[in-house]
Specification:
Shape: globular
Order of helices and strands: EEEHHEEHEHHEEEHHHHHHHEHEHHE
Number of domains: 2
Distance between the termini: 22 Å
CATH class of the largest domain: Alpha Beta
Number of strands: 12
Largest sheet: 7 strands, mixed
CATH topology of the largest domain: Nucleotidyltransferase, domain 5
Structural class: alpha/beta
Length: 396
């Protein structure tokens, strides 16, 4: 094992929403407790130009893009990530020693499907790491999900290693909720070892809402939930959609645009139109779908794991991060569902990490672990057969 040392690491994340890139600079140091100490230095967000975002979204539909254009996009995103790290490092006047770059997920299939005579699970994140290494002059860790998938896991969620490192408590249960394109949650019972952590994707967070906003209002997202607040939730549709098999499937499980992408949104809008829904009603119902899938997952899978047998149990904190945390309509729905269960909602910002920086911090941590030959997955969360070292290192 490599001797552990303090390093400044840049975590680079571009999520399922495909709205842009977040770069987070952290100082990560070994600690006597065994878990590394993480100090946030700074974070910066970069929006994809409109044409690039449209191309990224199109690439998630394999029938709409040639192999040549897919390759070009892979290399173009490498340039985007390199530019983002360089600008962030210059702004904070600090040079990272290592980069952890998640890349842009184009396809993720965590469960096996028969292909050419054999069951196959697969994942694909693009953005050429060699460009970052060449431009920045530092090593890059990328392609984090593949090792967990090869070890029998779903390749997701990977953020639980950060959740456990930073947020475990001996005195209270904690649930870490990320509301990015997809909603994922990590449940850590009070005093739990890493083997007692569960984590999984509960379903859509912003992906359906944002896609509906683009189609109906030509806007990338519902700022502060303003449109959802004007609409009426169509509960008959909500009840029908909640019958989908994914929501009742036991963890570990993961999902993405493969389940909740363009085709799902087209069917969702068509279903709403049959109920004579106005545009604002469709956004309200999409927002309620996110809230209900999260609440259903909490009640069915998380509460029993935390030992919550009845309403009114205290000492459970529900810590929310991701772009969806800025959607006031969504947060009000979640609050209304969780507070009667004795669950206190807190924002990630209260813990010193900006709402949208969490995943960048997570991949900075995973890169640091990989560099030191340490595993970065949580088998109890992904379903992997063992802890594995994540990612591939590009030295240049």
């Amino acid at each position: 094992m490599i001797k552990q040392k303090s390093m400044i690491v840049a975590g680079v994340m571009s999520g399922t929403s495909a709205d842009g890139v977040d770069v987070t600079l952290c100082r990560i140091s070994p600690a006597a407790s065994g878990s590394p100490h993480i100090q946030l230095i700074g974070t910066k967000a970069f929006q994809y130009p409109r044409a690039l975002r449209e191309t990224v979204l199109a690439s998630m539909d394999a029938k709409s893009m040639s192999v040549a254009d897919m390759s070009r996009l892979h290399w173009r995103l490498g340039e985007v990530y390199a530019d983002a790290v360089a600008v962030t490092a210059k702004q904070f006047k600090i040079k990272p020693a290592l980069v952890g770059c998640h890349g842009q997920t184009i396809y993720h299939q965590g469960t096996a499907t028969k292909y050419l005579g054999r069951p196959v699970r697969c994942t694909w994140q693009i953005g050429e790491a060699s460009i970052l290494t060449e431009r920045l002059g530092i090593p890059v860790v990328s392609d984090f999900r593949a090792a967990d998938l090869a070890a029998g896991g779903q390749g997701a969620p990977l953020v639980p290693i950060l959740d456990y490192t930073m947020f475990r408590s001996t005195k209270m249960n904690r649930v870490l909720q990320n509301l990015g394109g997809i909603a994922n949650m990590t449940a850590i019972p009070a005093g739990a070892s890493i083997n007692n952590v569960i984590a999984f994707d509960s379903g859509p967070a912003n992906v359906v809402i944002d896609s509906c906003m683009v189609k109906l209002f030509n806007r990338p997202f519902d700022r502060n939930g303003a449109i959802a607040k004007q609409g009426i939730v169509i509960h008959d549709i909500l009840h029908k959609l909640m019958q989908a098999k994914y929501f009742s499937t036991l963890p570990p499980k993961s999902c993405g645009r493969e389940e909740f992408g363009r085709g799902y949104v087209d069917q969702f809008i068509a279903l709403c139109r049959k109920h004579k829904a106005k545009d604002a009603d469709i956004i309200a119902t999409a927002t309620a779908l996110t809230a209900e899938t999260v609440l259903h997952a909490y009640r069915r899978f998380v509460a029993p794991h935390l030992g919550l047998k009845a309403p009114g149990v205290r000492h459970t904190e529900y810590i929310v991060a991701g772009g969806g945390a800025k959607n006031a309509a969504l947060m009000l729905m979640l609050q209304s569902g969780l507070e009667p269960l004795g669950v206190k909602i807190r924002m990630m910002d209260e813990f010193g990490i900006p709402t949208q920086a969490k995943e960048g911090v997570a991949f900075a941590l995973m890169a640091w672990l990989t560099w030191h030959g340490l595993p970065g997955n949580v088998p109890a969360a992904t379903g992997a057969s063992r802890p594995v070292i994540l990612g591939k290192v590009t030295h240049g």
